[in-house]
Amino acid sequence: MKVSEAIESRMTVRQFLDKPVPLDTIRDLLEISKRAPSGGNLQPWNVHVLTGEPLERLVDDVKDKQDRGVTETPEYNVYPPELVDPYKTRRRIVGQALYDLIGVPREDTPGKLRQLARNYRFFDAPVGLFFVLHRQMEVGQYADVGMFMQNIMLLAREYGLDTCPQEAWARWPKTLKEHLSLADHEITFCGMALGYKDEGAVINKLISDREKFENFVTLHGF
Ligand SMILES: Cc1cc2nc3c(=O)[nH]c(=O)nc-3n(C[C@H](O)[C@H](O)[C@H](O)COP(=O)(O)O)c2cc1C
């Protein structure tokens, strides 16, 4: 597979098949992806990979907490509190497209929350990853971890696998600290569902928009 094919075929998958991913494959994905660049070669990523019972325990714990109305305070803002345009509009458009596709009407808040809650089952993927950093890290190191994550997501395509990066997990920092046995100096930045795409699932038909070249590129000296 060419890099361009991996980039073009990568999409966020939100329904996975009940088909395990072999440990050897996970090892390949992480071993190869670790060639990602990082400022000063800090390699600021620490990865926790869950499957089977540990994954089930986490999923059940979050579900139980949600059923009891328990919430936690996120340790960072996933989005700026006052998101400005055009970003705010882009976010609204992709959200609306997703709900339209799965038939959740605009005013159906419980339906939207049910869909959001599916994040906390990794959309039925057999594998969940968490990307953990030292709290000391700055914006640059978060970008480094993003590049590492992108390597995993692109390489997954070569193995016939798909992914969903998941910042939704930022809502459960205490629960993740317990389940992953994190130290006080560690912060969970992002989750990721990994598995085989359910090709028949309507939700996986969502193709998100991208801006035109002219709208995000400023050429100098051409
Ligand atoms: C860092 C990051 C976190 C994300 N978190 C979530 C998430 O928690 N849940 C979700 O359904 N999608 C999540 N997404 C997926 C985005 O919504 C998706 O990438 C975007 O809409 C573009 O669609 P595409 O990935 O299919 O091209 C996340 C993406 C990134 C890069």
Low-confidence stretches: none
- For this structure, the CATH topology is NADH Oxidase
The number of helices is 8
CATH superfamily: NADH Oxidase
Over the alpha carbons, how many angstroms does the gyration radius reach?
18 Å
Q: Please tell me the overall pLDDT.
A: 97
- In spatial order, strands of the major sheet run 1-2-4-3
- Content-based structural category: alpha+beta
Which outline best applies?
globular
Summarize the biggest pleated sheet.
Answer: 4 strands, antiparallel
Strand content: 5-15%
Could you characterize the architecture of this molecule?
The chain has 222 residues and is α+β, with helices and mostly antiparallel strands. It has a single domain (3-77, 120-201), classed as NADH Oxidase (3-Layer(aba) Sandwich). The protein is 41% helix and 13% strand. The protein contains 8 helices and 4 strands. The protein has helices at residues 3-9, 23-33, 52-67, 87-101, 109-117, 139-158, 173-180, 213-216; strands at 46-50, 127-134, 162-166, 186-195. A 4-stranded antiparallel sheet has the order 1-2-4-3, sandwiched between helices. Helix 1 (3-9) crosses helix 6 and helix 2 packs across helix 6. The longest helix is centred in the last third of the chain and has 20 residues, at 139-158. Residues 11-12, 14, 94, 119, 164-168, 190, 208 line the site of flavin mononucleotide (FMN).
